[in-house]
Structure formats: C-alpha cells, structure tokens
Amino acid sequence: xxxxxxxxxxxxxxxxxxxxxxxxxxxxxxxxxxxxxxxxxxxxxxxxxxxxxxxxxxxxxxxxxxxxxxxxxxxxxxxxxxxxxxxxxxxxxxxxxxxxxxxxxxxxxxxxxxxxxxxxxxxxxxxxxxxxxxxxxxxxxxxxxxxxxxxxxxxxxxxxxxxxxxxxxxxxxxxxxxxxxxxxxxxxxxxxxxxxxxxxxxxxxxxxxxxxxxxxxxxxxxxxxxxxxxxxxxxxxxxxxxxxxxxxxxxxxxxxxxxxxxxxxxxxxxxxxxxxxxxxxxxxxxxxxxxxxxxxxxxxxxxxxxxxxxxxxxxxxxxxxxxxxxxxxxxxxxxxxxxxxxxxxxxxxxxxxxxxxxxxxxxxxxxxxxxxxxxxxxxxxxxxxxxxxxxxxxxxxxxxxxxxxxxxxxxxxxxxxxxxxxxxxxxxxxxxxxxxxxxxxxxxxxxxxxxxxxxxxxxxxxxxxxxxxxxxxxxxxxxxxxxxxxxxxxxxxxxxxxxxxxxxxxxxxxxxxxx
Length: 515
Ligand SMILES: CC(=O)N[C@H]1[C@@H](OP(=O)(O)OP(=O)(O)OC[C@H]2O[C@@H](n3ccc(=O)[nH]c3=O)[C@H](O)[C@@H]2O)O[C@H](CO)[C@@H](O)[C@@H]1O
Ligand SMILES: C=C(OP(=O)(O)O)C(=O)O
Prior knowledge:
Layout: H1 10-26, H2 30-36, H3 41-48, H4 56-66, E1 80-85, E2 90-94, H5 99-108, E3 116-118, H6 125-136, E4 140-143, E5 150-153, H7 165-169, H8 178-181, E6 187-191, H9 204-210, E7 215-220, E8 223-228, E9 238-239, H10 245-256, E10 260-265, H11 271-282, E11 286-288, E12 294-299, E13 307-309, H12 315-327, E14 331-338, H13 343-351, E15 355-358, E16 362-363, E17 370-377, H14 401-410, E18 413-418, H15 425-428, E19 438-443, E20 446-451, E21 459-461, H16 466-478, E22 481-486, H17 489-492, H18 498-504, E23 508-512
Parallel strand pairs: 2-14, 3-13, 9-10, 21-22
Antiparallel strand pairs: 1-22, 1-23, 3-5, 4-5, 6-8, 7-8, 10-12, 11-12, 14-17, 15-17, 16-17, 18-20, 19-20
This protein binds uridine-diphosphate-N-acetylglucosamine and phosphoenolpyruvate.
Uridine-diphosphate-N-acetylglucosamine binds near residues 172 and 201.
Enzyme class: transferase
Protein name: UDP-N-acetylglucosamine 1-carboxyvinyltransferase
Subcellular location: Cytoplasm
C-alpha cells in the first residue's frame, strides 16, 4: 500500500474528499456531520483528511447521513464523468419517454388486477427504485426487450410489510402509491418520500386531496401510517390546495376506483398528468377535461384488464438536448419533441435570438401527444428583457428553469432567474461559476446571470438535484479542456444513457469509478 506525503492512504484520501465535498453540498459543518453519525468533530476532520481508518459501518452511516451514496454497502461505487469539452456536436437525437409519466404509470398499474404493459419506458434510476419497491411488495415486473417495454403483473394481495424501505426512501415518487393503495388495504405504512434535495417539498396537499376518500395519514418514525375508512367518499368537488403534478395524480388514482363521478379542481394539466389520464382511459376510467384544471373522473370499482400503453416523450429531456446544442454552438436535430409542453420555452428562446426550425406535428405512440422535430442552429443570444420564472402548466416548466440559467450564461447581457418554487434549486446554479459563469445568488430563490461566458474546465461534484447537475454537465461540454463531474447518480435518476447519447452527437464523455 502506498501512502500520501502526509501518511494517508490514497483510497482514504479519496473517500475523505468525497465526504468533505458532499458535506459542504449539504451546507453542514464537520460538527453537524459528527452529531448526525454520533462521533466527534475531530474524527470527521481526520476522516476527511484520510487520516482515519474507516469501518464499513461508519462509511455507511456517513453515506446515509449525507444521503449521497458516496459509499454504499452492497451497491456499485459511485460513477463519475470525465468530459473533454469544446467540441461541436452534430446529428440528430430522439427524446425518450418521460421519467415523470414512467413513475406515475408504474404506481397506477397497482389499480389494475390485469397485466399492464408499458412501452419504451425510460430505463432510469428513478424507475428502478419504483420497480424495486413494486417487486418487494409482490408485484411481478419484467423488462421485455431492448426497446424497454415493461410488463407489470400484480399479485392477488400486496405484501406491504415487505416493502424495500431503502429503495422507497430514495424517491419522492413513492408518494404516488398512496392513491392506488387506498383501494388495496384499510391500513398500511409507507416510508417517507425522499428524492432530490430541493428543500422542503410539502406532502400536505396530498393528504388534503386524499382525505375526502377516507384516507388519514399520520407521520411517525420515518413512515406514513395510513388508515382508510371506506365509508367516506367525496361529497363535493375536490379542490387541490396546490396545482401540483403528483398530487393531481394521487387524486386521479383515488377517484379512478371509486364507483361514481369525482370532480377535481385546480388540477395540474401537465404532461405526466395527461399521460396518466390517457392510461386510465385505457383501463376504462372515463375522464373529461384532460389538459385543463378541472378533471371529471368516472370511476369504476374494479379494473381487471390486460392493457398496453405508450407514455409520451419527456419535454424536460427535450429542453436538455436543445440546451446542449445552444451551449456548444452546434446544429442538432432533436426528434420527438412534445411541442405542447415546450411552446413557452421556445417562444422565450426565439425572443433571445435562437435560430431553429420545426417540422409539422405528428402524433406520439399514445396517439394524443403532439410531437415535432426541432433543428437548433448556432445563434448569438441576448438576455431577455424580463426576468424568467416558472408557472404551473401552461407556463414555463419549473424543471426547465435551470436550463435557462445555462442558456443565459451564453447570452449577451444580464438575466434574472426567479425560482419561486423550490427553496434550494437556485442555489445549485451557482455551481456554474466553477466553470467560469457569472452567476450571483441574490437570495435563495433568485440568481442573476451575466453572459456571455468563456467556459473553462473544472472538477465539480454533482449538486444533489437532477436538473442543476445536468446543467453543469452541459456547461462542461462547452468548456475547453477536461472537466470531471463526480457522483452522477442524480443524473441517472432522470436520464437514460445521457453521456453515451451525447457522445453519439460528437461529445467526448468518459465514465469512471475511483474505488
Ligand atoms: C414525479 C413528478 O412528476 N415530479 C414532478 C412533480 O413533483 P411534485 O408533484 O412532487 O412537486 P411538488 O409537490 O414538490 O411541487 C413542487 C413545488 O412547488 C410548490 N407548488 C406546486 C404547485 C403549486 O400550485 N404551488 C406551489 O407552491 C410545492 O409546494 C413544491 O415546493 O412536479 C414538480 C413541479 O412541477 C417537478 O419538479 C417534478 O419533476
Ligand atoms: C425535481 C424533479 O423531480 P422529482 O419529483 O423526481 O424529484 C425533476 O425532475 O427535476
């Protein structure tokens, strides 16, 4: 075993660096981490400098406390990307189906006693976590082929006591099991929903939306304890307190198996909700008002059908690929773009000076969603006059907002980006400064971006949030020299083979693990 100059073993130094970076990303002091893992601050200091032998037990405790998967027992070591930037991209790339419809439809498959086949599902970590949860409770799930068609067959009775808690905790999508599960059992427990570290994400609207269906949830010891009173049924329209996507989906899934008509107001009309409505239609649940904020659901008390459904393409992935073209000043054709969900983004980009073409619309495999192919050309962009902020659909999608920070950094002038939705996501956009961008955090919700940027390569640990992490990766494509992006689980949570697919366009991204 070789040692560093100060006597530390190299692998301990590497682990120490990862722990330090991850701790700083959480905004924790060494003392806070020490308290979380029941050790002393001086021990954490030694660990971070590679001067302390580490037991596997301590490693997994630290990993869990930081929720970073730095070192996780029984799992593959974290993956990193090495990017050789400054290359122009070319060619065409097709958008895959969406993460958010994928996870919603998997949860919705619990409504169906029959066989559900989902076509071309995004094969991403978020879907994998939900599959692990489904498998653990007795659902048979099976990838059918290389096209990522997925078959789901539920058991006669779900075994909720056997739920894979670790998988459940790594995703927020688990919350969407509440709606379907009220049709299965009168009392059950679910682990708390996890996911990206975007600040507090309330679950209250879910509780309020499901209460009229007789669901009472108490949070205790890291779990939601749910009791269902079947005699309780919605007596009047359900008015959502927030126009959230997953809360709308939960209300839809609760209403789908309640015989009779349920009206949901202030519903999200967003893309994943539309996909869920079309899917429920295939299951025999008639829904009026799809794509609007009032949904009228004609529920049925039993569903037992063998069905086949194709979720539609991901507007956020489309935005990511458009951003890749913009930041690298390349001409790329992005195929299968769900245009209804990108119109505002494109209108804004046009204002900023983007040169692009779009084909005539054609139908997605679900026969409802409208797609186009977009060819994006190198353009000289200018900052928009007004601030950029998201709104529930039909508005600029909150998940697309981080891409505008990247794009604003390539544009001439100053842009104010206002993320009123998430408490932490704007903060992570300041990671772009490591690659040469001028991004100033004005307050937790607003960043000020001054462009254009002369990008330069750097080593960055992935921020613990999907879109900001992808934004950093895309900036690395533009940065001359070599960059390293560490611990990319967070990207793999929402994108399938992103590095390989960008490489097919001429990017040079290598994958490596260090221990
Ligand atoms: C699996 C899935 O589909 N995930 C999406 C879903 O998560 P999800 O439906 O879980 O979104 P949240 O419930 O976390 O809502 C996002 C944030 O917006 C706030 N909020 C939301 C609606 C509203 O009318 N007012 C309001 O203030 C919430 O308090 C929260 O802070 O929607 C988010 C917001 O579009 C997206 O980032 C996620 O990709
Ligand atoms: C925040 C996101 O989604 P999730 O609800 O899966 O955390 C996202 O897609 O960027």
